[in-house]
Design brief:
One of its GO terms (cellular component) is basolateral plasma membrane. It is built from 26 helices and 2 strands. Among the domains are: about 375 residues, Na+/H+ antiporter like fold (Up-down Bundle); about 60 residues, no CATH class.
Length: about 700
């Protein structure tokens, strides 16, 4: 019934089915079965967690690992102690029936009910198709808070048996958190490496390849639970570690088997969990206390909202992509409780916790409220708030190339800045993986295959299978490349062409050259770091010299502008040739000026008086009284400019023309005075000239 499933989540419908089945069994007179904690933790929970860990979106998870850890660790601790403390206060003032519940019992209850449940989150969030960021934040929190829940649960359970709790016990309990969480991850990594190494030798027995994945994952979970470590952390770690190496070794059929068997197994477990929740609600022993149940529900919601708001305010100080108020609302509203809390409470011993039935009743009430009320209303709220949905898009080679390019670029920027951030350590891990780990865990040539080529082969295989399933070659999508066409269409053998035979030595030499020049494109060169740069001793002197030159030139320009009238604009070459052609006698040299250099100007050539360097013209015998009329008529003596030797400074090296008298002469030469009025016999000059 699509109209019902579009409004009510599947988990709610399964609980209703469980309630109906439990009521039917009880109506017949039989005793309904109760979800035992051993069955739940050993058989129903592992498939769901393995499915989540094996197909975990690793990139989004690692990029947001800091935010997820803060929500999972600090948020769960806040919920547990806030809820336990307030419930203890309620029990003290709640009247009869609650006074006997002590502080440790309330803290134990708070640790059970505070953790977000991964099964409930998966069931609801996969239906509303929320964006990747919010999904990985809430789901990652529900996975990683298992370590906190396990530690607090066993801690308060042990403390309840003690007559007196000392400071040493509290310190040991705090340290046990690191042992439980890191120990679970360590166990999972070991089994993941063993599974990857085993899959290297299964090329001749493809049938049992999926079995190794399930076997080693389940062994990791059982080994962690055996030592009271976090089994969920062990399962996630083993799935994440083994997947890239196992998929490179196993066949495509084995990969398909693992994928669909895990999905089917987790779906069956999820269905059984929610049905058994409904049946256990009907079959279990309940003790209803209005004050305790309503207070639990209210304080759960308040603690979740306050925890998310406070932690997000702190997290946003360090995040580049900030969590908006809409995101915070969805994270707070998505804190669903589920069967893990029910099973943990069911494990409590009646001898030490005679209020177990009341705890179970309150926990079932909270589970029903979060799954039914929050689970049913979160989809309309997401639409109402216009929260970004998940973009259903197929990954492409183009996207993969740009992703890898940006990773390399950001790693290089971090190296140059001397900042060892997320991309730096990710690059180090990738290098270590390619250099050592892949050679040990992946068989054959696949260990040396670049990541982009491996992704390309995977896409080609996927597109080929989709094309065959859709009806063959006639319905080929445009995105399929010619290579996948060649993989499916019968190949037409080309006409054989005689190729020159290469000797083994020559072939090995060519391969060596290509390997050295193409494979090692990212050889490690000297790191360019702002902390290790050597200062140039001459750099400061050059800068000072350039500044002095610039100041001197600016000063000369100001003095010239202040002391002189602007010089007349020099004629263009065309006008100069016209002037010379009309009156050549005005430019002919004197007959008695034998000692002077003669400037010959061809009217047809582009050379013009513009090329005359006035800075090197000086009057012969300037500053002296002329001795004869002949010397007076000699006029200007033009001397060629001496080229400056290389390495000398034109500004600070004094030349022959730097004396005060020469500078005064230059100012006079640059001021031609008022222009005479044009006479009738003067050659034609345009008006604008």
């Amino acid at each position: 019934i699509p109209s019902v499933s579009g409004i009510v989540p599947e988990s709610c419908l399964l609980i209703v089915v469980g309630l109906l089945v439990g009521g039917l069994i009880k109506g017949v007179g039989e005793k309904p079965p109760i979800l035992k904690s051993e069955i739940f933790f050993l058989f129903l929970l592992p498939p769901i967690i393995l499915d989540a860990g094996y197909f975990l979106p690793l990139r989004q998870f690692t990029e947001n690992i800091g935010t997820i850890l803060i929500f999972a660790v600090v948020g769960t601790l806040w919920n547990a102690f806030f809820l336990g403390g307030l419930m203890y206060a309620v029990c003290q003032i709640g009247g009869t029936g609650l006074n006997h519940i002590g502080l440790l019992a309330n803290l134990l209850f708070g640790s059970i009910i505070s953790a977000v449940d991964p099964v409930a989150v998966l069931a609801v969030f996969e239906e509303i198709h929320i964006n990747e960021l919010l999904h990985i934040l809430v789901f990652g929190e529900s996975l990683l808070n298992d370590a906190v829940t396990v530690v607090l649960y066993h801690l308060f359970e042990e403390f309840a048996n003690f007559e007196q709790v000392t400071i040493i016990d509290i310190i040991l309990g705090f340290l046990s958190f690191f042992v439980v969480s890191l120990g679970g991850v360590f166990v999972g990594v070991i089994y993941g490496v063993i599974a990857a190494f085993t899959s290297r030798f299964t090329s001749h027995i493809r049938v049992i390849e999926p079995l190794f994945v399930f076997l080693y994952s389940y062994m990791a979970y059982l080994s962690a639970e055996l030592f009271h470590l976090s089994g969920i952390m062990a399962l996630i770690a083993s799935g994440v570690v083994m997947r890239p190496y196992v998929e490179a070794n196993i066949s495509h059929k084995s990969h398909t088997t693992i994928k669909y068997f895990l999905k089917m197994w987790s779906s069956v477990s999820e269905t059984l969990i929610f049905i058994f929740l409904g049946v256990s609600t009907v079959a279990g022993h309940h003790y209803w206390n209005w004050t305790f149940v309503i207070s639990t529900l209210l304080f759960c919601l308040i603690a979740r909202v306050l925890g998310v708001l406070g932690l997000t305010w702190f997290i946003n100080k360090f995040r580049i992509v900030k969590l908006t108020p809409k995101d915070q609302f969805i994270i707070a509203y998505g804190g669903l409780r589920g069967a893990i809390a029910f099973s943990l409470c069911y494990l409590l011993d009646y001898e030490h916790f005679n209020m177990r039935d009341m705890f179970l009743t309150a926990i079932i009430t909270v589970i029903f409220f979060t799954v039914f009320v929050q689970g049913m209303t979160i989809r309309p709220l997401v639409d109402l708030l216009a929260v970004k949905k998940k973009q259903e898009s197929k990954r492409s080679i183009n996207e993969e190339i740009h992703t890898q390019f940006l990773d390399h670029l950001l790693t290089g920027i971090e190296d140059i800045c001397g900042h060892y951030g997320h991309h730096h350590w990710k690059d180090k891990l990738n290098r270590f993986n390619k250099k050592y780990v892949k050679k040990c865990l992946i068989a054959g040539e696949r260990s040396k295959e670049p990541q982009l080529i491996a992704f390309y082969h995977k896409m080609e295989m996927k597109q080929a299978i989709e094309m065959v399933e859709s009806g063959g070659i006639t319905k080929i999508p445009s995105a399929v490349s010619t290579v996948s066409m060649q993989n499916i269409q019968p190949k037409i053998l080309p006409v054989e062409r005689a190729l020159p035979a290469l000797s083994k030595d020559k072939e090995e030499e060519i391969r060596k050259i290509l390997r050295n020049n193409l494979q090692k494109t990212r050889q490690r060169l000297r790191s360019y770091n702002r902390h290790t740069l050597v200062a140039d001793p001459y750099e400061e002197a050059w800068n000072q010299m350039l500044l002095r030159r610039q100041k001197v030139r600016q000063m000369e320009q100001k003095m010239n502008n202040y002391l002189t009238v602007p010089a007349h604009k020099v004629d263009s070459p065309t006008m100069s040739r016209a002037r010379i052609g009309s009156d050549p006698l005005a430019y002919e040299p004197k007959a008695d000026s034998e000692n002077l250099p003669i400037i010959t100007i061809d009217p047809a050539s582009p050379q013009s008086p513009e090329s005359v360097d006035l800075a090197n013209e000086e009057l012969k015998g300037s500053g002296q009284v002329s001795s004869s009329p002949e010397e007076d008529e000699e006029g200007l003596v033009m001397r060629p400019k001496e080229p400056s030797s290389p390495g000398t400074d034109d500004v600070f090296t004094p030349g022959a023309s730097d004396s005060p008298s020469n500078q005064r002469m230059l100012r006079c030469l640059s001021d031609p005075g008022p222009r005479p009025e044009p006479e009738e016999g003067e050659p034609f000059i345009p008006k604008e000239q």
